[in-house]
C-alpha cells in the first residue's frame, strides 16, 4: 500500500478516488494530477511505484496549494486567531454554535447537541 503525502492508497481502489482522500484535494484536482502523472482512468493503487508516488507528490507541491496536515494547521490557526481577538465568530466556534449566522432556534441540533451547558 503506497503512501502519497502521508495518506495510504489502498491497492484495490481506483487511484483517482484514493488521491481525492488526501485532505484538500477533490475529485477534479485528483483526476488532473493523475492524468499529469501518466496514470490511466482505471489505474489502481497496485500500479503506483515509488517513482510515480514521488512524481504525484512533486505535482502537488508545484501547485502551491496547502494539503494534508499543513491545510489543517492553517485552518486551526485561523480559528485560534479568532478566539484570541475575541471576535464573534471565534466565540461561536468556541461554544460549538453555528458560525455563519444560521438560525439556532429550530435548526443546528447537531452543532448544539454536545455543548448545551457551555458557560
TrEMBL record:
GO terms for cellular component: cytosol; small ribosomal subunit. Pfam families: Ribosomal_S13. InterPro entries: Rbsml_uS13_C, Ribosomal_uS13, Ribosomal_uS13-like_H2TH, Ribosomal_uS13_CS. PROSITE patterns: RIBOSOMAL_S13_1, RIBOSOMAL_S13_2. GO terms for biological process: translation. Gene3D superfamilies: 1.10.8.50, 30s ribosomal protein s13, domain 2. GO terms for molecular function: RNA binding; structural constituent of ribosome. Keywords: Mitochondrion, Ribonucleoprotein, Ribosomal protein. It comes from the Eukaryota. The keyword Membrane does not apply. Belongs to the universal ribosomal protein uS13 family. This is Ribosomal protein S13. The lineage of its organism: Eukaryota, Sar, Stramenopiles, Ochrophyta, PX clade.
